[in-house]
Each structure stands twice: as C-alpha cells, then as structure tokens.
Amino acid sequence: MLFIVKENHDISSLLEKIRMASASYKVVDIYGKRIVIAWPDNLVENIEDISIDAKIRVRKPYYLVSNEWKSGKTIVNVGGVEIGGSRIVVAAGPCAVEDEDILMEIAKAVKRAGASILRGGAYKPRTSPYSFQGLGEKGLKILKRVSEAVGLPVVTEVMDTRDVELVKSYADMIQIGARNSQNFTLLREVGRAKIPVLLKRGFGMTVEEWLLAAEYILSEGNGDVVLCERGIRTFEKSTRFTIDIGGMVIAKMQTHLPIAADPSHPAGNRDLVEPLALAAIVAGADMLIVEVHANPSKALSDSEQQLTVEMFEKLMKRLKAVAEAIGRSI
Ligand SMILES: [Mn+2]
Asked: What is the pLDDT of residue 308?
C-alpha cells in the first residue's frame, strides 16, 4: 500500500499506526512527494490518518515504478537532455573509451549526425578476465574532456559500489550493465547517489524482475531511472542475444519510467543494428543507445557490432523518417 503524505505533514502518528498493525514500512521522498510504502496490504488497508493525502493499492510486487499511482510519464533530465518526452533521444559512442583522439573523432561525428548523449565504457564487464577491462579513471577523465569539448552529456557504466562517487563526479548518467542489474547493493548505492541511471535488463531476467531492480533504485529516493532492453538469452544462436521487443512494450505499459533499447548488443553484428533500432522505436522506445566507432575493426571490444560513422549517419536518417511517421521526433 502506498500512503501519499500531505505536504509538510508530520507522519509520526501514521507510522505508529503501521507499527501497531505489525506491518513493515519504508518512507521515500521522490518526485517532490513523501510516500510511505507499507506492507502487507491486508494489515494496513484500514489505516486512516490526518497526514494521508491518498492511499493507493498497487496490485503488483513493486510499488514506486508502477504507473498505478503516478499520473503522467516521468521525464529524466540528463545534462539538459530530456528522456521520456515526445523526442526520441539517441546516445552513441564506442563500446569502450580507448584513446582521447579516437573518442573526440567519434563524439564529433555522432553529434553531427544527431546524437544527443555520448556513450563509452571506462569500466568494462568482460566475459574473460584476460580481455580489455577498460581504462578506469583515466577513461573517465577522457570522457569528461571530450564531453565538454563537444557539448554532449555522458553515460558510462559503473560496476562496483566503491566507484559510484568517482563515476558520478565525471558522468551525467550512470549505466548499470546487464551483468550487474540484479546486484542489489550496487542498485541501492546508485539510488542513494541521486544521479540519472540507465538500467539495462539482465539477459536472464523477466520483465517483472527488471522492474523490481528499478524499484531498488527508486526506493532510495532516486526517480531518475531509464529502463533499457538489451536482449535476453534464448536458444537462438544466429543473433548474440534475442531483443525482447514484446517485453519492452509490456514494461512500458507497467511503468511511468522512460524505456530505452540497445540494438547493438543483441545484434552482435553491425548489419543487424539498424533494423533492430527501427523496430524498437516503432514499438515505443524513448531512447536508443548505439555503439559507433571510427574504425570498428580496430576496436578493443565488441568490434563486430559497432557501426561505422557512415552507417550511423544512415541510421539517423532512417530513424528521423520513422520517428516522424509515428508522431515523434529525434
Ligand atoms: Mn559493448
């Protein structure tokens, strides 16, 4: 049960009533409101208190991410770029930050083509411990310098709770990657950090588990979360992962949070990126995050799926035409 508290009202008597009912609760300040989440519902449904503005029963295992209580879609502002409005936002850049000159070249090219956020990994979660692991803080510094020179906000991944404050000091949005999307300690930490979060769906996660992962972040008072579909693991081997467009649409129907899609990682092959990107925006994605490299064959990670700059320019033209056809813009 969600108790929405009247502005500036004392909640001590409400909390006392919840305790007397032997129920559990959590107080969260989010979207300019104070909310008391109390469970289980059957113990608290008859509670009345002067401080309650509204009492809402959410019929799902999650509360704050649900659109059953919050009217209207949430807009997440990333360094001045709004995600979740009618404009579709494209983030683009290399899989990993490798070198300042290369990143500068890519950033200028993707901005010219219409991207409004720069992506690039400084901490890389690689399947093998012997693969390139990223440049760490040196990579973050490069990202920051390029971001300021080119004028694009930055999204980059954090893998460890110990790095959250450091990454926050360089980035405009923190990405939680697919392999960490049920690392609940890390989710709580980025929730407390109060920075916009791009939450990838783990490749073994159901839609409900994905929404519950977002609930961890919101329950710490951070409402700036964008959910990102990036493909799940199925029996199909012709693609790297299976992009779950249906699951992405279901998530969008359940939540007020913006939805993104990553067409690069499920493709695993640069020729497949464009059709998956187009499918995702037709299905309602508010944001795309695409891997682009100035010289993909020389890339230190994910070289097969990174688009060339020319391919990205062509993709942006197609995206613009499709966005217009569905009443949106890029
Ligand atoms: Mn990658």
From this structure: 97
